[in-house]
Design brief:
The chain is of the alpha/beta class. 34% of the residues lie in helices and 20% in strands. It has a single domain, classed as Rossmann fold (3-Layer(aba) Sandwich), CATH 3.40.50.360. The protein is built from five helices and nine strands. The strands form two sheets. Strands 1, 2, 3, 4, 5 and 9 form a six-stranded parallel sheet that branches. Strands 6-8-7 form a three-stranded antiparallel sheet, with no helix packed on it. Helix 1 links the parallel strand 1 and strand 2. Helix 3 runs parallel beside helix 4.
Protein backbone atom coordinates (compact mmCIF):
# COMPACT_ATOMS: atom_id res chain seq x y z
CA UNK A 1 0.00 0.00 0.00
CA UNK A 2 1.34 3.45 -0.90
CA UNK A 3 1.54 6.21 1.67
CA UNK A 4 -1.77 7.72 2.66
CA UNK A 5 -2.41 11.45 2.99
CA UNK A 6 -4.79 12.72 5.66
CA UNK A 7 -6.12 16.22 5.12
CA UNK A 8 -7.70 18.17 7.97
CA UNK A 9 -7.60 21.65 9.46
CA UNK A 10 -4.75 21.91 11.95
CA UNK A 11 -6.66 24.80 13.57
CA UNK A 12 -9.78 22.92 14.66
CA UNK A 13 -10.24 21.18 17.97
CA UNK A 14 -12.59 18.24 17.52
CA UNK A 15 -11.70 17.34 13.93
CA UNK A 16 -8.01 17.57 14.75
CA UNK A 17 -8.43 15.16 17.69
CA UNK A 18 -10.26 12.68 15.48
CA UNK A 19 -7.62 13.03 12.74
CA UNK A 20 -4.94 12.28 15.33
CA UNK A 21 -6.85 9.12 16.32
CA UNK A 22 -6.99 8.11 12.65
CA UNK A 23 -3.24 8.69 12.28
CA UNK A 24 -2.49 6.67 15.41
CA UNK A 25 -4.71 3.79 14.28
CA UNK A 26 -3.24 3.85 10.77
CA UNK A 27 0.35 4.11 11.93
CA UNK A 28 2.28 7.38 12.05
CA UNK A 29 4.80 6.16 9.46
CA UNK A 30 2.01 5.25 7.03
CA UNK A 31 0.21 8.61 6.96
CA UNK A 32 1.27 12.11 5.96
CA UNK A 33 -0.75 14.93 7.54
CA UNK A 34 -1.60 17.98 5.40
CA UNK A 35 -3.26 21.14 6.69
CA UNK A 36 -6.48 21.62 4.69
CA UNK A 37 -6.05 25.37 4.93
CA UNK A 38 -2.74 25.15 3.01
CA UNK A 39 -3.84 22.56 0.46
CA UNK A 40 -2.57 22.67 -3.13
CA UNK A 41 -3.50 20.71 -6.24
CA UNK A 42 -0.03 19.15 -6.19
CA UNK A 43 -1.02 17.01 -3.17
CA UNK A 44 -3.74 15.34 -5.24
CA UNK A 45 -1.45 14.85 -8.22
CA UNK A 46 1.34 13.20 -6.24
CA UNK A 47 -0.65 10.77 -4.04
CA UNK A 48 -3.11 7.92 -4.49
CA UNK A 49 -4.75 7.33 -1.09
CA UNK A 50 -6.53 10.08 0.82
CA UNK A 51 -8.42 10.49 4.06
CA UNK A 52 -10.33 13.77 4.20
CA UNK A 53 -11.89 15.47 7.18
CA UNK A 54 -15.18 17.19 6.39
CA UNK A 55 -16.96 18.49 9.48
CA UNK A 56 -20.42 19.88 8.78
CA UNK A 57 -20.67 23.60 9.46
CA UNK A 58 -23.84 25.55 10.15
CA UNK A 59 -26.88 24.09 8.38
CA UNK A 60 -25.17 21.42 6.29
CA UNK A 61 -22.24 23.25 4.72
CA UNK A 62 -18.63 22.44 3.96
CA UNK A 63 -16.03 24.26 6.06
CA UNK A 64 -14.63 27.42 4.44
CA UNK A 65 -11.27 25.79 3.65
CA UNK A 66 -12.98 23.12 1.54
CA UNK A 67 -15.36 25.61 -0.06
CA UNK A 68 -12.39 27.66 -1.22
CA UNK A 69 -10.65 24.61 -2.71
CA UNK A 70 -13.70 23.08 -4.46
CA UNK A 71 -13.21 24.99 -7.77
CA UNK A 72 -9.69 23.53 -8.07
CA UNK A 73 -10.89 20.11 -7.00
CA UNK A 74 -13.68 20.07 -9.62
CA UNK A 75 -11.07 20.47 -12.38
CA UNK A 76 -9.04 17.40 -11.33
CA UNK A 77 -8.99 13.91 -12.77
CA UNK A 78 -9.04 11.65 -9.70
CA UNK A 79 -9.36 8.30 -11.46
CA UNK A 80 -7.35 5.50 -9.80
CA UNK A 81 -7.22 7.43 -6.53
CA UNK A 82 -8.86 6.26 -3.31
CA UNK A 83 -10.70 8.64 -1.00
CA UNK A 84 -12.16 8.07 2.44
CA UNK A 85 -14.04 10.87 4.19
CA UNK A 86 -14.87 11.32 7.85
CA UNK A 87 -16.80 14.15 9.36
CA UNK A 88 -18.28 15.49 12.53
CA UNK A 89 -21.89 16.42 13.01
CA UNK A 90 -24.58 16.74 15.67
CA UNK A 91 -27.50 14.30 15.36
CA UNK A 92 -29.66 16.09 17.94
CA UNK A 93 -28.83 19.73 17.23
CA UNK A 94 -28.88 19.38 13.42
CA UNK A 95 -30.82 16.16 12.67
CA UNK A 96 -31.99 17.39 9.26
CA UNK A 97 -28.46 17.69 7.85
CA UNK A 98 -26.35 15.34 9.95
CA UNK A 99 -22.83 15.12 8.50
CA UNK A 100 -23.96 16.57 5.15
CA UNK A 101 -20.40 17.76 4.47
CA UNK A 102 -19.28 14.16 3.98
CA UNK A 103 -21.91 13.69 1.28
CA UNK A 104 -21.17 17.04 -0.37
CA UNK A 105 -17.46 16.29 -0.60
CA UNK A 106 -18.01 12.72 -1.82
CA UNK A 107 -20.36 13.95 -4.58
CA UNK A 108 -17.61 16.28 -5.83
CA UNK A 109 -14.97 13.55 -5.66
CA UNK A 110 -17.17 11.08 -7.54
CA UNK A 111 -17.75 13.59 -10.37
CA UNK A 112 -13.95 13.72 -10.69
CA UNK A 113 -13.73 9.92 -11.02
CA UNK A 114 -12.47 9.15 -7.49
CA UNK A 115 -12.89 5.73 -5.92
CA UNK A 116 -14.73 6.17 -2.61
CA UNK A 117 -13.81 3.76 0.18
CA UNK A 118 -14.73 3.54 3.84
CA UNK A 119 -18.50 3.30 3.66
CA UNK A 120 -20.09 2.60 7.06
CA UNK A 121 -23.48 1.30 8.23
CA UNK A 122 -26.09 3.90 9.19
CA UNK A 123 -27.28 1.75 12.10
CA UNK A 124 -26.58 3.24 15.51
CA UNK A 125 -27.30 6.84 14.55
CA UNK A 126 -30.51 8.85 15.11
CA UNK A 127 -31.15 11.71 12.67
CA UNK A 128 -33.71 12.88 10.11
CA UNK A 129 -31.61 13.12 6.95
CA UNK A 130 -28.07 13.28 5.67
CA UNK A 131 -26.51 13.85 2.25
CA UNK A 132 -23.88 11.35 3.40
CA UNK A 133 -26.41 8.49 3.55
CA UNK A 134 -27.11 6.15 0.66
CA UNK A 135 -29.50 3.39 1.54
CA UNK A 136 -28.39 1.71 4.75
CA UNK A 137 -24.86 3.15 4.57
CA UNK A 138 -22.96 6.40 4.90
CA UNK A 139 -20.41 7.19 2.17
CA UNK A 140 -17.83 7.80 4.91
CA UNK A 141 -17.50 7.81 8.68
CA UNK A 142 -19.86 10.15 10.52
CA UNK A 143 -18.94 11.03 14.09
CA UNK A 144 -20.99 12.87 16.70
CA UNK A 145 -18.70 14.14 19.45
CA UNK A 146 -21.60 15.98 21.12
CA UNK A 147 -23.88 12.99 21.64
CA UNK A 148 -21.83 9.84 20.97
CA UNK A 149 -18.28 10.86 21.83
CA UNK A 150 -17.64 7.62 23.70
CA UNK A 151 -18.18 5.66 20.47
CA UNK A 152 -15.60 7.61 18.43
CA UNK A 153 -12.51 5.62 19.38
CA UNK A 154 -14.07 2.28 18.46
CA UNK A 155 -15.60 3.63 15.28
CA UNK A 156 -12.27 5.10 14.15
CA UNK A 157 -10.36 1.88 14.91
CA UNK A 158 -12.86 -0.25 12.98
CA UNK A 159 -12.95 2.22 10.07
CA UNK A 160 -9.17 2.41 9.75
CA UNK A 161 -8.94 -1.40 9.69
CA UNK A 162 -11.49 -1.34 6.86
CA UNK A 163 -9.53 1.35 4.98
CA UNK A 164 -6.33 -0.69 5.17
CA UNK A 165 -8.07 -3.47 3.22
CA UNK A 166 -9.81 -1.13 0.74
CA UNK A 167 -6.85 1.11 -0.11
CA UNK A 168 -4.30 -0.62 -2.29
Amino acid sequence: MSKTVIIYSFHTQKSKKVAEKVIEAFGKDEVQAINAEELTSKVFQENDNFILSAPTWFDGELPNYWDEFVPDLEEMDLKNKNFAVFGLGDQKGYPENFCDAIGILVEILEKCGANIVGKTPAAGYTFESSRAQRGDFFVGLPLDQENQGKLTGGRVTKWVAQLKTEMK
